[in-house]
Amino acid sequence: xxxxxxxxxxxxxxxxxxxxxxxxxxxxxxxxxxxxxxxxxxxxxxxxxxxxxxxxxxxxxxxxxxxxxxxxxxxxxxxxxxxxxxxxxxx
Length: 91
Description:
This protein has one domain. The protein has two helices and six strands; from the N terminus they run βββαβββα. The chain is globular, with a radius of gyration of 16 Å. A three-stranded antiparallel sheet has the order 1-2-3. The protein has a three-stranded antiparallel sheet with strand order 4-5-6. It has helices at residues 52-56, 77-81, and strands at residues 19-23, 27-32, 35-40, 59-62, 65-68, 73-76.
């Protein structure tokens, strides 16, 4: 009996898109590149007053770069992981 192992994964190519996994009164959790990251409203205030639909619509535009088109927010995973290194620029 022969067994064939099939794989649908292509090495070096991402097979999963970023997604928002949870939104609470404290912030937003996003899953990207196999990591779930938390964005507090204190560090990312632009999300706090947005409709849920706009927060859930996230795109991974390039490796490690997330974009929310309905609210025009671009963030890298580095910014999400280390918000203290990137002072808020928007008012």
